[in-house]
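The material for today's practical consists of a large collection of protein records. A record pairs a protein's sequence with a compact description of its fold. Instead of coordinates, the fold is spelled out as a row of discrete tokens. We will come back to this pairing of sequence and fold again and again. Here is such a record, shown just as it appears in the course material.
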Amino acid sequence: MRKSEIPPIVKELGIRILEIIRDKGVKPREVAHNADLDIENLRKYIKGSQEMKISTMVKIADSLNVTVIELFTFPESKY
């Protein structure tokens, strides 16, 4: 049980990462490998059940060949 609830933007970010993964036609395992992450951690980020450090976010963006800003470009976003 978490001490505090996960902020909604963390969940939105996970959804966005998954969208980019699907749009690029790569497998999450490839992204995790290229970002030097454990696949289970990447899955937690995608599900929005775990917050990530900025350095991790940069690694994921680099692995997907996108900018960090693109990770935060949410379709129909309220942010």
